[in-house]
Design a protein that fits this description.
Blueprint (H helix, E strand, L loop, with lengths): L1 H12 L8 H11 L2 E7 L5 E7 L1 E3 L3 E6 L4 H8 L2 E7 L10 E10 L5 H14 L17 E13 L8 E3 L3
């Protein structure tokens, strides 16, 4: 009852309701979630969606490890434009949070590998997994480091009473 009265008072005074900081919310979703659904398509547009463990560099980049022979990696080679969704699979209906983005994905370029491994290893350590060295992603190793450079991003709008997206400014 007290919350309702406080809300009535705010509305009567013409004060706007508090709004969610979408950038902070996006970072929280990325910090608290381990997997991204990576949506790719081949040159003809055949879609493929894959969950991959990721590490994020603020709201600019996502990194992950993959085998170049996997379906999603082959599709990225053909068509680098991807869509990303990060969400809490344990949330009950109408309580969910999500981060959405369009991005350009590729094998991490050699000049960016050290920075990418730094981001990846920080997250691995936070989750108690250990670290990945260059030898695990180069030479005869089966894995490679991939990066998705975010083009546009949104979050599930926490201030809306319907399912809609709110832009994330970067």
């Amino acid at each position: 009852m007290a919350t309702f009265i406080a809300l009535q008072t705010l509305l009567a005074q013409g004060d706007p309701l508090p709004r969610t900081d979408n950038n902070a919310h996006a970072r929280t979703v990325l910090d608290e979630t381990s997997y991204v659904v990576l949506a790719t398509a081949d040159a003809e547009g055949t879609p493929w969606a894959t969950p991959v463990w990721f590490a994020h560099d603020n709201l600019d980049r996502l990194y992950w490890l993959s085998w170049p022979g996997s379906q999603h990696s082959q599709f990225i080679e053909q068509r680098p434009e991807v869509a990303l969704t990060v969400f809490d699979t344990n949330a009950v209906p109408n309580q969910g949070t999500a981060f959405y983005a369009t991005a350009r994905a590729r094998l991490c370029p050699a000049e960016q590998v050290d920075d990418g491994l730094g981001v990846l290893n920080r997250r691995l350590r936070e989750q108690g997994v250990g670290e990945v060295g260059r030898e695990r992603i180069t030479g005869e190793s089966r894995l490679r480091l991939y990066v998705a450079e975010i083009v546009e991003a949104w979050v599930l709008d926490q201030d809306a009473d319907v399912d809609q997206r709110a832009p994330v400014q970067r």
